[in-house]
Design goal:
single chain, 297 residues, alpha+beta, 8-stranded antiparallel β-sheet, 5-stranded mixed β-sheet, 9 helices, 15 strands, 25% helix, 31% strand
Length: 297
């Protein structure tokens, strides 16, 4: 529910849209669910009106990658691990990794074998629950993987046929919960598919999202006017990470009338359509491996 407020003179209304008003707050709304995963339903109620929408639950449980890349953890059917036997032969493939420690954040490229070994060690029952070093395979392009692995992700008609042309990109995100992706927006429509594990996503409409991001940047001493790409290291460590994360996941979100914010909880096989320009932040929840694939137009 969006709370109303008295009308403001035009100059003050403009200022209110730029800066937060602490008296205007709202709860996160559930995202509408499409009646089915038919292409025409998707086009009519999500893609063409550029509206966030969930596909019916479990719509993507049949992706080959789900059964090939992952397996239930030993003795824990509800928690997933990587299928090391299947992935190990591709260990020489280069993948993008994010390394987070208690003090640093580093992006680099490394052999898939390094990530597999870290997952194996970090998933061991004897590992410390206070381990600070964490790897996240983040935004790995499907085009850069070996052919056999690419074939495990057939691109659905919802992506190839929803609009004009057939240009698309497929990116993978794999890590151990908890994972975190800061608030950002994408320049293209995005079908976000949860493969295994669970994630929570919060979305803000383009105006509310940009104002929210700019407000935190201003508190950090940055520019209020921002571009479309926001996933810099400054958002993944230190004060910048703390402020941005708190604004979306802890603090109430002030809104101007007509603005919308949503929240979705995704499990394996679930899919969420995120229109271009909609801002979102993502957290991996629960235990074990959490993995997603992002398909963009």
């Amino acid at each position: 529910m969006i709370l109303s407020r008295p009308a403001l003179p035009s100059s003050r209304a403009t200022q209110a849209r730029r800066l937060f008003s602490s008296s205007i707050h709202t709860a996160w709304k559930p995202i509408p669910v499409l009646l089915d995963s038919d292409l025409q339903t998707f086009r009519k109620f999500a893609f063409i009106p550029s509206t966030p929408a969930l596909l019916p639950k479990g719509s993507f449980t049949g992706l080959p990658a789900v059964s090939k890349w992952f397996q239930p953890a030993a003795g824990r059917q509800e928690i997933y691990d990587l299928n090391h036997d299947y992935l190990r032969p591709f260990g020489s493939a280069t993948v993008p990794l994010e390394l987070t420690t208690s003090t640093d954040f580093v992006r680099s490229e490394a052999p898939l074998a390094l990530f597999l070994e870290w997952i194996r060690r970090a998933s061991a029952p004897s590992r410390s629950s206070h381990t600070q070093e964490r790897f996240y395979l983040a935004q790995a392009s499907l085009d850069d993987l070996p052919q056999q692995l690419r074939e495990d992700f057939p691109v659905p008609p919802l992506v190839t046929s929803a609009g004009r042309g057939d240009v698309y990109a497929v990116n993978l995100w794999i890590g151990l919960s908890p994972t975190y992706t800061p608030l950002h927006s994408d320049p293209n429509p995005n079908l976000f598919v949860q493969l295994v594990g669970t994630k929570k996503i919060r979305l803000l409409d383009p105006i509310a999202g940009q104002r929210t991001f700019a407000n935190v940047q201003a508190r950090l001493g940055g520019l209020e006017r921002v571009s479309e790409k926001y996933l810099g290291p400054e958002l993944m460590q230190g004060v910048g990470k703390d402020l941005h994360k708190a604004q979306i996941w802890s603090d109430p979100i002030p809104l101007v009338d007509g603005e919308v914010i949503y929240e979705a909880h995704l499990e394996g096989g679930d899919a969420l359509f995120i229109p271009n320009g909609w801002w979102h932040s993502i957290k991996g929840t629960g235990e074990g491996v959490t993995a997603s694939v992002s398909l963009t137009r």
